[in-house]
Amino acid sequence: MDGEGRTLKREGARGGREGLPRPGGGAYDLAMSGRLVTIVMLVALLTACGTAGRSPSAGGTPGTAGPGRGSPGTTAAPRAPVVSPSPDPSAPPWAQTEVSEWGGSMTSAVAFAADDAWAAGTVDEGETLITHWDGRAWREVAPPVRRREEVSFRLLAASSRDDLWVFADDGRAWRWTGTGWAARGGLGGTTGTNGTAGTAGPDRTNGTDGTAGTGGAAGSSGTGTSGTAGSGGLWLRAAAVAGPRDVWTAGTTRGDPARPFLVRWDGSGWSDLPLPPGAEVNDLGALSPRDVWAVGRSGDQAMIMHWTGERWDPVPVPPVPGARGAVLDRVLAVSPDEAWALGTAEVSDQERRQFLLRWDGSRWSEAGPLPEDTRLTAVESDGHGGIWAGGESRGAGDGDGDGDGERTILHFDGAGWTYGRTPGTQSGPVVNDLARSPDGDLVVAVGGNPDYDEDSEAWVWTRH
Q1: Is the dihedral of CA 222, 226, 227, 233 positive or negative?
Q2: Under DSSP, is residue 437 helix (H, G, I), strand (E, B) or coil?
Q3: Nearest 5°: phi and psi at 453?
Q4: What digits encode the pLDDT tens for the residues 417-448?
Q5: Helix (H, G, I), strand (E, B), or coil: what is residue 15?
Q6: What is the Cα–Cα distance from 430 to 411, expressed in whole angstroms?
Q7: Would residue 42 be called left, alpha or beta, if left means φ above 0 and alpha means ψ between -120 and 50 degrees?
Q8: pLDDT tier at 453 (50, 70, 90 boundaries)?
Q9: Which residues neighbour 72 within 8 Å (Cβ) at sequence distance 6 or greater?
């Protein structure tokens, strides 16, 4: 580039001297002609060498990729399609309605109405928090364990306001009764009755020593809690509630090697369902006991499965152009004819890119380009065929909440992306979950500031 630039400058200087006599007359012209021929031949030779190994334009025969441009016999992977989101000045602003300045992060939320929503997470560097929105303020709800620092409540899930569940990192589950939490056990054991301890789970290889979980002590509500599945324990990734007698959880064991699991609650206990070899489930979405989605990976490729009430059926996943591997991280089930899945594709050792899929009732297809400068982490329906998407802004901005840089919550209507005003009180916020009430009167976003470690603030934003 520098050589080309300097040549242009010299030619421009020479052009400014036109009209002056040239030394040498015809001999000079003949010499210059010979030099021009030589230059033309060199340029042609260099051009031929530079294009060798590259694929020709459309209509030609594919060639072999040149050095640094991909694997032999392939062309370079195309750049990920991205778009620049537009500001939406008419959109209602997001308001901060809850924050903990003692360190932590809110991880999950559900919303039923403008005056009925729930959020869960950790504060004070590990102390669990469950809180309820009554339309005016968030009020803390007593957790289902006496020592809240012993359990991290990772997920909330519900099929209705009368069927709300909370799940701990170790796979244990509790159902809200309206006045308190009733233990429902977990993969490691079953719930005890009449104040007795939970029974031990069957022998598994979940823990490093492969022993069964032990029964929990009697719960304060008169039911026992479940034991853990081996000394290694579990790591819960996803939960979905299709009904009071149809609940799903998925994750991996903490042993070495870790084992993926997918379990189902049938109203009386949990059963471990086999997964295809190499498969892992990262997220679940349920519409009914006969309509449940599971996404993740199978080997190094993205995986989608659909539960019909009797079995899990694999569903084709559209390939990501130029990717050598992919995984699906989130799924959102809206209706039998609408579902969304968010994934990440591996293009090279240094490059990862996200992609968004949509289910139309018959097949999955790419939904369109994603917004630039934002890593998406959560999706929620807008009730009109589009989605809210939350994540982490990676663009340059001052974080004053005007949307110029902190594009942490965006809206996709199927054609384009927009963003509105978010609270300017957070530095480096990351959205962990989004929830919308069925009537559309309330949308809840929860998250934290992971880059600030112990100084992270567990926050809740709402929009009416």
Answers
A1: negative
A2: coil
A3: 50, -120
A4: 999 888 876 678 999 999 999 999 999 999 99
A5: helix
A6: 16
A7: alpha
A8: low
A9: 64, 65
DSSP designation for 37: H
The amino acid at residue 51 is T
In sequence order, what are the residues at sequence separation of 6 or more whose Cβ sits closer than 8 angstroms to the Cβ of residue 103? 123, 124, 125, 453, 454, 455, 456, 457, 458
State the pairing for strand pair 374-381/387-393. antiparallel
Q: Do residues 151 and 166 make contact, with C-beta atoms less than 8 angstroms apart?
A: no
Helix (H) or strand (E) holding 330: strand 325-335
Helical spans, DSSP H, in 165-244: none
Q: CATH: 3.40.50.1260, 1.20.120.140, 2.130.10.10, 2.60.40.10. Which one for 87-189+232-463?
A: 2.130.10.10
Structure token digits, residue 214: 């032990």
Phi and psi (nearest 5°) for 61? Answer: -90, 130
Dump pLDDT digits (tens) for 284-331.
999 999 999 999 999 999 999 999 999 999 999 999 988 999 999 999
Q: Where are the beta strands (DSSP E) in 114-245?
A: 116-123, 127-133, 138-140, 153-160, 163-168, 173-176, 181-183, 189-190, 199-200, 234-243
CA dist 253 and 232 (Å) reads: 7
234 CB-side CA count, 13 A: 31
- With tokens 């509790």, the residue in question is 174
With a CB cutoff of 8 Å and minimum separation 6, the contacts of 100 are: 123, 124, 129, 457, 458, 459
Contacts of 331 (CB under 8 A, 6+ apart): 283, 284, 285, 293, 294, 295, 304, 339, 340, 341, 342
* CA distances, 339 to each of 83, 410, 425 (Å): 22, 18, 33
pTM of the complete model beyond 0.85: no
Is the pLDDT reported for residue 219 higher than 50?
no
Choice between 397 and 95, residue whose per-residue pLDDT is larger: 95
Q: What are the beta bridge partners of residue 71?
A: none
- Distance (Å, rounded) from C-alpha 175 to C-alpha 158? 9
Is 351 a residue whose pLDDT tops 70?
yes
**pLDDT tens figures, 79-89:** 456 788 988 88
